[in-house]
Model the fold of this input.
Amino acid sequence: MTISRDEESRKMRRVSSNPEETRSIGAEFARNAPAGMVLSLIGDLGVGKTEFVKGLALGLGIEDQVTSPTFTILHEYRGGRLPLFHVDFYRLRAEMELDEIGFDEYLNAGGLCAIEWGDKFANRLPSDSMKILFSIDAGCRREIVW
Ligand SMILES: Nc1ncnc2c1ncn2[C@@H]1O[C@H](COP(=O)(O)OP(=O)(O)OP(=O)(O)O)[C@@H](O)[C@H]1O
Ligand SMILES: [Mg+2]
Done:
């Protein structure tokens, strides 16, 4: 795992070489995350967004196994330092589906909210949500920037 700070843009950048490293980057992130934080996870299919959320759960001390909420839109995990709300916008077709699950209440529930494909309905996220950008570098290397 390499760590560097781009001073000009004040961005944090991590490079991960395997899924375990992506999870530990997520775990480290979650240990410092304040209640109510909303993360918009952005990057192509298979880039490691769900692996990162598995790491968020580890860092919060959640013992449940995290699985992708692709079909159910939202999974909720309790029992850690903060509740973790794991959302996936990928299969959402209409914004209305967010109202059906009471999405806005989760944003304000004092947890850590991690939203895969968050840019798809970016207008539904708070203005202070944090974008985490994932890209595939070469082979298994993933770059994670926020
Ligand atoms: N460095 C890495 N970090 C994360 N995942 C990696 C890495 N190298 C290989 N992989 C593999 O890439 C895949 C990442 O899958 P993951 O479900 O996390 O992607 P995703 O971004 O959530 O995709 P989707 O948009 O379909 O939800 C896994 O199969 C994982 O084993
Ligand atoms: Mg995923």
User: Anything to note?
Assistant: Strands lie at 2-6, 11-16, 38-42, 74-77, 84-88, 112-116, 130-136, 142-145. The domain at 2-145 is CATH 3.40.50.300 (Rossmann fold). Residues 13 and 141 are 13 Å apart (CA to CA).
